[in-house]
Amino acid sequence: MYLGSNCTDTKSTMIKSDIFPTTLRADTAAYLFKGKRNFTTTTLKNTKFLERAEQLEVLSLLENACILPHGGGYDLSDIEDVIDILEYKDRRYFVTSLKTNTNRLKIIRSVRELQFGYRGRGVILKTIQLNLGDMIARLNPLFSLKL
């Protein structure tokens, strides 16, 4: 599997270790994590992936997966949570709850036009809390150049 420009398939001849980067933003620290097999059947049930994995016949792949965040990800300013995913004619629609108008829902197909920021260090803390991998190093930027 390829994630961005990083090959994450430890069986590939392109990589020599199971240490992967997690970056938050260009001007904040990046982290290196040693991966673990961490997507158990219990985790699949709790994240509601089990039924879908069985339908798509990928259960054995997921049960042996090492799941690590590759970055901080987006923080959608008005979205609280995805409460349902609707599929219609091979397209996905995300039913979301809102942070401020709690009695309203927003259904979106693409997040490209939504206002966003970046999630911060909480992603790293959650990775450690959930025991998804072992932190090997923290890489502090010396400078950041934006062109």
Task: Note down, in words, how this protein is organized.
This protein has 147 residues and is α+β, with helices and mostly antiparallel strands. The protein has two domains: 1-73 and 119-141, no CATH class; 74-118, no CATH class. It is built from four helices and ten strands. The strands form four sheets. It has a three-stranded antiparallel sheet, with helices on one face. A three-stranded antiparallel sheet has the order 6-7-8, with no helix packed on it. The protein starts with a strand and ends in an 8-residue tail after the last strand.
What keyword list fits this structure?
147 residues, alpha+beta, 2 domains, three-stranded antiparallel β-sheet, 4 helices, globular
Total individual domains: 2
Which stretches of 5+ consecutive residues score pLDDT under 50? none
Q: Name the strands of the widest sheet in spatial order.
A: 3-4-10
Q: Rg from C-alpha positions?
A: 18 Å
Task: Report the count of strand segments.
Answer: 10
Measured between the Cα atoms of the first and last residue, the distance is 30 Å
Beta content? 25-35%
The SS-based structural class is alpha+beta
- Compute the average pLDDT: 84
What is the number of helical segments per DSSP (H or I, 4+ residues)? 4
Summarize the biggest pleated sheet.
3 strands, antiparallel
Helical content stands at 10-25%
In sequence order, what are the helices and strands, one letter per element? Answer: EEEEHHHEEEEEHE
- Please state the overall shape, judged from the principal axes of the Cα atoms: globular
